[in-house]
Amino acid sequence: MAYLLLAAVLIFAVIRPWDLPEAIAAVPAAGIVVFAHLSPWSTVAEEFTELTPTLIFLGAILVLAWTAAEEGVFTYAADLMLRYGMKSGQRLFTLTFVAASLSTAFLSIDATVVLLTPIVISTAVTSNIRPRPFAYACNHLSNSASVLLPVSNLTNLLLFAQLGISFTTFGMIMLGPGLVIIFIEYLALSWFFSNDLHAPVMSRPARASRRPSIPVLAILASTIVGFTSSQFIHVPPAYVALAGALGMTFYRLRRVGPGQRSTTLWSMTRAANPEFLAFVAALSIVVLPLRLGPAGSVLEHHFPAGETLLALVLASGFAALLANVVNNVPAALMLAPIVAHSPPLALAALIGLNVGPNLTYTGSLATLLWRRILDSHDHPADVLVFTRLGLLTVPASLLGGTLALWASLHLLGRI
Amino acid sequence: MRITVWLAPSTWVAGLAPLVNYPDAELTLMCVVDAGVDAAVRGGHTGLLGRGKWGGRPTESTNLVQAAAATELLDEAEMRIGRATTRRILTSDHPEREVVAACADTDLLILARDGDKHRLGPRSLGRATRFVLDHAPCQILLLWPESAPSVATIPPLPTSGRPRKKPHD
């Protein structure tokens, strides 16, 4: 029963019939788990209490990213990229790597995919540079650069909540692995698309760029500073993010006339993507009976233990595999309690959960298969190109990233 | 005479130059929109499980952005030529096949090299261009977008080491 519920929730989320929000299936499924007593009440309540700060964190980051886009932060970044990179495809490509890594690290994978990618592509198109390498770079980096900080990916937030390490410690340990993975992606993609990137460029005059307002940049910057100092001021980073999001909301409310305040408030609420938050909450409850049942025990029994280099490599490979069998969000929910006792193992698992989705362009093999079955408009040629690129980067990134993680843990005296 | 010119964003000016030799030709100007870009973008969205329509996901496909740029390019090209042409914008994730198919009823296809412009050799052609060159059902005029690199850019013959195996050995 629990398996069927999870399958139904995931399939609904992939197909999204009539464009309905994914929570439409997930919330009733969670209701069935609760009312059919597939999981004890107390466990559900406990799970929900534990998840709440993570959901606040996620919603706040989404609000920050969304407002940053509305205030022209991404367009400004694209203008800067164009100013310094318009003379050569390779240079614009390098700048795209920097921008996509920063946007993923600080404003999450969602920001890169939804907000940055279209701007980067239109920048390439308008400057007469072939857009394909840029589309693939953004797609890859939204996953692989998301190992850098707890806020970069929902998977990180889910595990971070249980690890008991500070935001700064997470960031310091993952800096090395993140940079190694991004560098591997850079080499692989530059080689793969070398012909496109070295094509002649006929540049156009640069657009006049408009810098985002100082308060917006100040709120973003102080939120980031707040994350890194949260452990010293003893405030959970989720509340720092919330303060940033509220600050941004007040700033925008003050700027608009009284007549528009309700519209602004509504759009800020929409920016937190409440349907998604409901989906995550419901999914975590749907996953509960599996986690506590035989599937959880099998997973726990087979998941690598220990903190040796081999265990870490196996953990990241295992997590990448699991992310491809379902998707990395349910995979993170399943793995969180198993790896929570060991930060090294959890961080290795996160490398797998975040890099693994690059194997296919839809984030997981399962999603890809469903789409192949259901969507005849899919482009088989691109599936092949993307999969070849995935095979080129994913194994190398998993291995390189985990080796760097091991080195970084040793350097910081964490193993 | 029917002439088709394949105009790529960064090399199109070169493709127009030879047209002065064909004042009476029937001209078709052609641009290609790479649909593979859109597939990668949509794939990224699918990977974001559960995010619904956050921030009103861009409904505008990147194909449209590319098509708008192509239209602008065709306008500019037509203005430079100074006479009416037939205009075609092809949208495909297999641009090379579309271009070949579009050449079925043309006498001459004009296109520019779109790869490495600094040295002579096979890398001066992109994958799609090479396919078109190999399969086009018409005469082809292949141009360097700028002045051609010097002959000295061809690497010298290997003088020592193991002799290379010939393909048919």
Q: State the helicity of chain A in percent bands.
A: over 70%
pLDDT < 50 stretches of chain A: none
The percent of residues in helical segments of chain B reads 25-40%
How much is the radius of gyration of chain B in Å?
A: 20 Å
Summary keywords:
heterodimer, A: 415 residues, mainly alpha, 19 helices, B: 169 residues, alpha/beta, 5 helices, 18% strand
Quick take:
Chain A is mostly helical. Chain A has helices at residues 2-15, 23-35, 41-70, 73-85, 89-126, 132-144, 154-163, 167-192, 194-197, 214-233, 237-255, 261-271, 274-292, 294-302, 309-325, 328-339, 343-355, 365-374, 380-411.
Structure description:
The complex is a heterodimer of chains A (415) and B (169). The mean pLDDT of chain A is 88. Chain A has 415 residues and is mainly alpha-helical. Chain A has helices at residues 2-15, 23-35, 41-70, 73-85, 89-126, 132-144, 154-163, 167-192, 194-197, 214-233, 237-255, 261-271, 274-292, 294-302, 309-325, 328-339, 343-355, 365-374, 380-411. In chain A, helix 3 (41-70) packs antiparallel against helix 13 (274-292). Chain A has 19 helices and no strands. By secondary structure, chain B is of the alpha/beta class. Chain B is built from five helices and five strands. A five-stranded parallel β-sheet of chain B has the order 3-2-1-4-5. In chain B, helix 4 packs parallel to helix 5 (127-135). The longest helix of chain B is centred in the middle third of the chain and has 20 residues, at 62-81. Classes of the chains: A mainly alpha (415), B alpha/beta (169).
Summarize the SSE layout with pairings:
The complex is a heterodimer of chains A (415) and B (169).
Chain A: H1 2-15, H2 23-35, H3 41-70, H4 73-85, H5 89-126, H6 132-144, H7 154-163, H8 167-192, H9 194-197, H10 214-233, H11 237-255, H12 261-271, H13 274-292, H14 294-302, H15 309-325, H16 328-339, H17 343-355, H18 365-374, H19 380-411
Helix pairs in contact in A: 1-2, 1-13, 2-13, 3-5, 3-7, 3-11, 3-12, 3-13, 4-5, 5-6, 6-8, 7-16, 7-17, 8-19, 10-11, 11-12, 13-16, 15-16, 15-17, 15-19, 16-17, 17-19
Chain B: E1 2-6, H1 12-16, E2 26-34, H2 35-47, H3 62-81, E3 86-92, H4 95-102, E4 108-112, H5 127-135, E5 139-143
Parallel strand pairs in B: 1-2, 1-4, 2-3, 4-5
